[in-house]
Amino acid sequence: MSTQGEGRQKISPMAVWLPLFLFGVFFALVIYGLASPASRDVESAMIGKPLPEFALRPAIADRPGLSSSDLSIGEPRLLNIFASWCIPCAIEAPQLETLNAQGIEVVGIAIRDRPDDVAAFLARNGNPFSRIGADDVSAVQLGIGSSGVPETFVIDGNGIILYQHIGVIRREDLPLIMDKLAEAAR
Amino acid sequence: MRGLLFLLVLALCTPVVWAPLAAQDTLPPAPYAYEQLEDPALEARAQALMETLRCLKCQSQSIADSDAPMAGDMRSQVRKRIAAGEEPEAIRKWLIERYGDYVSYTPRFTALTWPLFLVPMLIVALAALLLRRRFRRGGEG
């Protein structure tokens, strides 16, 4: 008994509150984690790296297909990953039209899509693309670290990926996209 | 009772309802998305790898478990590469280069993750030290 008594005497009054304090910290962390769930966006790790080599067949009859060599010709390009079955892609279409109207060349990759469906989608929502490649097995999408549609990449004149925009380009995102393109032109 | 039965049926139907919703495109799946490799040994290697790769569309599932079209495309690519003689760890590395560590479920010892491995060992060592002192004191008393 005496040894236990000695043990107790050594604990300072402050130390008694330590476990409760630690529990409080832990509890606060849990509440914080629940209140602000982590982002579900998966960012590409390919920013600053060159595009992988690829050559995609045309997705529709009246636009050429897309290969990696079309994206390293000394001028920056906007590469839009879309699909006719992707509903947010239709919401994004007017913004791509705006960018195209400002003289920016937009190229597209249609993911797992049929030529008829792509043509119908573009007839409905406008066609800002100078080239559209068809990626039927998401090979290029996986190659550039894209995890969904729509996503948009800024590619510089040497074929280096400079920026990835995940999700719909909204009206308020346009200045950011223009900035990144200007950066790519430098 | 009928309510319970209804709930059970609903619960059973949920994954069935989900699959077509996720597969919005009308293209047939990639060649090896739902088809195994002919060589069982190669298929086993591919399967082991696929179970440790994250589906990027449905982030709590592996690509082996997911019916998302993108997971199917990833499976097809994994199987084709394994069939072509590529090492599973080389394929994992290729994906990590594109999506970061997030795409792999297998823990890695990196500059960021080392405390996860070392801190538990330190805590166990500390506990052992404290217990030893305590037992020794108990023995003396």
Structural class of chain B: mainly alpha
Total number of domains of chain A: 2
The CATH class name of the largest domain in chain B reads Mainly Alpha
Mean pLDDT of chain B: 85
- Quick one: how many beta strands of chain B? 0
According to CATH, what is the topology of the largest domain in chain A? Glutaredoxin
- Quote the beta fraction of chain B: under 5%
- CATH homolog superfamily of the largest domain in chain A: Glutaredoxin
The portion of residues forming beta strands of chain A comes to: 15-25%
Radius of gyration of chain A: 26 Å
Largest sheet of chain B: none
First-last Cα distance of chain B: 65 Å
Number of strands of chain A: 7
Query: How far apart are the termini of chain A?
Result: 79 Å
Overall form of chain A: elongated
Task: Report what the structure shows.
The complex is a heterodimer of chains A (186) and B (141). With 186 residues, chain A is of the alpha/beta class. Chain A has two domains: 2-35; 55-185, Glutaredoxin. Chain A has seven helices and seven strands. Chain A has helices at residues 2-10, 13-16, 18-35, 87-101, 115-125, 139-143, 174-185; strands at 55-56, 66-67, 77-82, 106-111, 129-135, 151-155, 161-166. Chain A has a five-stranded mixed β-sheet with strand order 5-4-3-6-7. A two-stranded antiparallel ribbon of chain A has the order 1-2. In chain A, helix 5 links the parallel strand 4 (106-111) and strand 5 (129-135). The model of chain A is unreliable at 1-5 (pLDDT under 50). With 141 residues, chain B is an all-alpha fold. Chain B folds into two domains: 9-106, Cytochrome C biogenesis protein (Helicase, Ruva Protein, domain 3, Orthogonal Bundle); 109-141. Chain B is built from five helices and no strands. In chain B, helix 2 (40-50) crosses helix 3 (69-83). Chains A and B meet through helix 1 and helix 6 of A and helix 3, helix 4 and helix 5 of B.
